Amino acid sequence: MKKILSGMRPTGKLHLGHYLGVIKNWLELQEKYDCKFFIADWHALTNKYKESHELKENIRQMIIDWLSCGIDPQKATLFIQSGVKEHAELSLLFSMITPKSWLELNPSYKDLKFNLYYQYLRDFLTGKQVKIIQTPPPESFDEAVKKATGKQRNKIFEEYLREAFHRAFYNQKGIDFKGLKDVLIKLGIQKRIVEEAVRNLEEGDVGKDIDTLGFLAYPVLQAADILIYKADAVPVGEDQLPHIELTREIARRFNNLYREIFPEPEAMLTEASRLPGIDGRKMSKSYNNAIYLSDSEEEVNHKVLQMKTDPQRIRKTDPGNPEVCIVFDYHKIFTGDENILKDIDAKCRNAQIGCVECKKILADNLNQFLSPIREKRKEIEQDIEKYEKVFIDGTLKCREIAEGTMKEVRDAMNLYGNF
Ligand code: TRP
Ligand code: SF4
User: Which of 118, 153, 310, 398 holds its CA 20 to 30 A away from the CA of 8?
Assistant: First the structure.
C-alpha cells in the first residue's frame, strides 16, 4: 500500500482554511492509504525559537484539533517529530551531502524573508501614521509612479506598497533599497519617514530571526522526515513543492554516493483553500480574520455578521452581486444544497433578501458544520491524557521504523554507531 507522510507545524489553533486546505484531504487519504501524520515541533522552532514557551500548548491544541475533525489513530499513525530523534540524526547526515546553494536558492526561504521584511515595513509605516488604504488603487502602479505626485502626503495603497517592495526585493542584485526609497517617496509618503524605514530594513535586525543555521536547513530536516519512512507521496500545498523537490534531490544524491536506500517521493498537490477570511483577505491568524474550528457558536455568529459583503450594495433595496461577496463564497462551501444556493443567488440579485438574513443562514450552516467537531472537542478535552497517549504510541511505533532505516543508513555510510 502506498505510504503517505505529512506534517504540520504547531503554530496555534486551526481555522477553516486549514480544515479545507489540509485536514479534509487527510481525512480522505487515511481511508485509502498507509498514512502517517505528525506534529512538526522542531520545524516550529526554526523561526519561533524565542516563543518556545508556547509550544506545549500549541501541540496540545493541534492534537485536539486533528482528533476532533476525525483524524483517526485507528486508520493513520499520528506522532510527534521531536519524539523520533532519528529524524535529527538523518538530517545531520543529509546536511553533509547537501550543497549550501541548494538551500540559499530555495524559493520558500526567499519568500519568507520577503514577508518578514514587508511586514516590518508595513508595520513601521502604520506606526508613523501613514495611512495604508486597502481598496484597490485607481490606476496601474507604473502610471502612479510616473505621475510622481507626492501630493497625497502619507497615504499609500496597500497594493502599491507591496508592488514597490516586491520589485525592490526580487531584484537580481539583492534588495534594491535605493530604488525602493525613490518609489515610496513618489507614491506619497514623506521622505523623512521613508528614509528611516528603509534604513531600519537595511541595517536593523529584521529577518535576523531566520538568519540561523536551523532555519536555512529547514528543508534538510523535512527531507529526513519524509525519507526516513521511505514515503511514496507527500500531500502538501503549492508553497511546499520546492521542499519536496529538494527532498528528491537529496535522496538521489544519497543513493548515488552510498547505496540505493531511498525512493524518491512524489508531491501530492492539495489545492489551496480558496476560502477568504472575513475581511476578504487570505485567512490568516496574523490578519485577525480567521474563523477557528474551536470558535463557539456566538463567536461564529459574530464573525459572520462582520463579514464584508458586496460593497455596491448599501441598502437592502439595492440589488446585490453574490459573485463579489465573501458571504456567498462561504455559502458555496457550507450551504451545500444547490437549490438553496440558487435561491440565495437570485434573491440577492433581486434585492429580495437582506444581507443580515443571508448571513444568518450562513452562520447556522457553519455552526451545523462545526457542531460535531465541537462535541468531539469537549470529549477530548475532558480526557486529554488519553489522547496524548495516542500520539505517544504512534511516536513509539515510528521510532522503530525510523531506527530500521537508520541502521541501513549507518551501514551504507560506514558509521560505527550501529550497535
Ligand atoms: N514544512 C511543512 C509546512 O510548513 C511542515 C512539514 C515538516 C512537513 N516536515 C514535513 C510536511 C514533511 C510534509 C512532510 O507545512
Ligand atoms: Fe452577499 Fe448575501 Fe448580501 Fe448578497 S445578500 S450581498 S450574497 S450577504
Answer: 118
Q: What is the residue range of 330's domain?
A: 295-382
Q: How far is the CA of 5 from the centre of ligand 1 (A)?
A: 9
Same domain for 230 and 113, yes or no, is no
Is the pLDDT at 150 greater than 90? The verdict is no
d(CA 210, CA 119): 14
* Enclosing H/E stretch for 28: helix 24-32
Give bridge partners of residue 131 from the DSSP assignment: 155
Question: What whole-number distance in Å separates Cα of residue 44 and Cα of residue 412?
Answer: 31
Q: Give CA–CA dist 398/81, Å, rounded.
A: 9
Range from 15-29, 246-260, 275-289, 300-314 carrying the lowest mean pLDDT: 275-289
Query: Residue 385 phi/psi, 5° resolution?
Result: -60, -40
> Per-residue confidence at 137, pLDDT binned at 50, 70, 90?
confident
118 pLDDT higher than 80: yes
Q: Which residues contact 348 (CB under 8 A, 6 or more apart)?
A: 310, 319, 320, 321, 322, 325, 328, 358
| Ligand in closest contact with the CA of 224 | 1
340 pLDDT above the threshold of 70: yes
142, with CB counted inside 10 A (0-12, 13-18, 19+), is exposed
Say if strands 76-80 and 131-133 run parallel, antiparallel, or are unpaired.
Answer: unpaired
- Based on the domain organization, do 263 and 390 belong to the same domain? yes
240, 268, 285: residue to mutate for ligand 1 pocket, most atoms within 8 A of CB: 240
Ligand number, closest to the Cα atom of 229: 1
Q: What is the CB < 6 Å shell around ligand 1?
A: 5-9, 40, 43, 222, 225-226, 234, 236, 240
Closest atom of ligand 2 to CA, residue 326: 1
Give domain status of residue 171, yes or no. Answer: yes
Probe residue for ligand 2, chosen from 353, 357, 362 as the CB with the greatest number of ligand atoms within 8 Å: 353
Q: Is 101 exposed, middle or buried (0-12, 13-18, 19+ CB in 10 A)?
A: exposed
Closest CA to ligand 2's atom 7? 322
Which residues contact ligand 2 via a Cβ below 6 A?
309-310, 313, 320, 322, 325, 327-328, 348, 353, 355, 358-359
